[in-house]
Amino acid sequence: MLLEIDDVSLLYGRIQALHGISLQVDEGEIVALIGANGAGKSTTMRAISGIRPVAGGRILFNGEDITKLRADLRVRRGLCQAPEGRGIFPGMTVLENLDMGAYTRRDRAGIAQDLDRVLNLFPRLAERRKQPGGTLSGGEQQMLAVGRALMSRPKLLLLDEPSMGLAPMLIQQIFTIITEINEQGTTVLLVEQNAQQALARAHRAYVLETGRIVKSGTGEELLHDPSVKDAYLGVA
Ligand code: ATP
Predict the structure, then answer these.
(1) Residue 15 Cα to ligand 1 middle (Å)
(2) Does CATH place domain 1-78+189-236 in 3.40.50.1820?
(3) pLDDT tens digits for 121-154?
(4) Ordered strands of the 156-160 beta sheet
(5) CB under 6 Å to ligand 1: residues?
C-alpha cells in the first residue's frame, strides 16, 4: 500500500469533521473520494497532506508513519496536494509558477524533463508560459495548479476538486489529463463533486457521509450502485 489511513478522526475546535475513517491507496491507482457538501472530503485531504493535525488514528505513507510529520516534509517524501481552489502565485509567470513546484528538487535534468511533460499535457499553459499567473482564466489557473503539483514529481498526487468551476469541455479535458498522469506512473487520490466523471475514471472509490466512509468499491461498482446513483449521480 502506498497510502494507508487507519481510523483517522479530525476536529475543528469542538466540531468533529472525521469520525474514524479508514482508506487505502495502492501504487498505480486512481482512487476517488465522493460525497455531498460538507461530508469531509477536503478535510480528509487536509489530514493526509498534513495541513490539519488529526485527533486520532494513523496515516502511513510508503510504510512510514507520517501521522505527525510536518506538511513540508510530506511533500519531500512525494505526497503532494495541488492547492485547494486556485492557489497559484498571481505575480509570477506560468513558467515561474511551475518552477516553484520543483523547489524541493535538485535534479536539473529531471526538472527540465517534467517541465516538458507538463507543457505537453497542458498546451494552453505552454502558449501562455510568459504570462503572469494572475491574468490566466480560472480554468487555466486550475491547470497551472495541477501542473505545479506535478513538478514536484509526486508519488501520490492529491487533487481536491480539480474540475470545480470549469466549463464542460474543460472538465472532460481535466479528467483525460488525470488519466494520462496516472498512466505515466503517478498514483492519484481525487476528491470530486463530479461523481459521475470521477467514478468513471477511478479504479476504486470511497463514499463519505458526515465524516464517515459509508461505502467503497470499484469505480464501476459504485457507478451502478442504486443508492450512489440516487444520492450523487443525479439519476434514479
Ligand atoms: P464540499 O464538497 O462542500 O467542499 P467537503 O466534503 O469537502 O465539502 P469539508 O470541507 O471537509 O467538506 O468539511 C467537513 C465539515 O467540517 C463541514 O461540516 C465543515 O463545515 C466543517 N469545517 C471545514 N473546515 C472547517 C474549519 N476550518 N472550521 C470549522 N469547521 C470546518
Answers:
(1) 10
(2) no
(3) 889 999 999 999 999 998 889 889 989 988 988 9
(4) 79-81, 156-160, 187-192, 30-35, 204-209, 212-218
(5) 12, 15, 17, 35, 37-43, 193
